[in-house]
Structure prediction request, 371 residues.
Amino acid sequence: MIVEVMPALTEEKSATSLDFAKKMMTDLVLARSSNLDDKTQIINIVKEFLEELAFKCRMINSSDSPALIATKDETGLLLSGHLDTVPIGDGWSHAQGEIQGTAFYGRGAADMKGGCTAMLMTAIELTDKEMPLSLAFTTDEETTMRGAEAIASDPIIRNADAIIICEPTDLDIGVREKGLIQIGLSTTGKSSHAAMPQEGKNAIHSMLFVIDQFKDLMMTKGDPMDSMTLNVDVIRGGNKVNVLPDRCEAELDVRTPATMSPEEALRLIRDRTKGLEFDLRIINKLDPIIVSEESKIVKAVMSIRREAALSSIAYASEMIMYIRQNANVIALGPGDPRQAHVPDEHIDLNEIVEACRLYSTLCQKMRERPF
Prediction:
């Protein structure tokens, strides 16, 4: 459907119109793309669209989590976004793809199909201009980030003048990002009849005792950006109400400020649980990020959008994969980050249009003058 509407819109030079944003957002949001879905449809929508604009497209990574690099020139600005979402979940009062005024509702509207739409609109804006632009899309950011890891090893990341992760930041400049360590815990016990608990050992009870050691860490004090946060977000154990469970599993999500490494958080957890019987495994680990305020991309954005604030990002993004190869990387995208992963997730279409204009201007400004 996108390929059919694209030529008319480009002929009218309407890439920055609300109508275009509505059409593109509808296509992207209604294409299911959670970790439970086949990602082929969503990546092909983007690939076919960009090929119509004469971008050279390269697919990388696995068929389960495909990633795409699209280029007109392997220098200049690179815009990066992820097309996958968390599952839709319950508690919605608006339909997927519903529009109320300029508010667009749907899973992924803010995180981050709004940013991806702005990227595609920018591609149209610069189609007829002698302006280098590259785009990178992944489909596993919410799970493994292997797509971004694969893209990060490509020379395009090193060659880019700068990289913008188009995650929702309210169009502020994300220069600080918390670290992440996700931990799996497991306890074992011995099954017995619930009427005779003395004959067994309840693995859930053991897990609750382990978790209780973190009780004070689960209560955030002050600004969560300045302190470690810890949440127990998954717990599994037992299969029958009258049988003591012999195994229990839990998963912890820990975020660390720039002053604390994930390794330090892990040591704290181990110290708190000395002497307790459980197994621990690392599911995922990402270091915190601090981008220099003197970097050329920060200065370039500030020269165009003077009202933009330098901000901290509570969530983990693919910026961690790219900054190892290119220090000129920031997060900057449309949408309220507090809308991520919640029922009735939505974004203002006007902000998507504004992001497109900002990205297009940045492409030109970074070529016109040094920063």
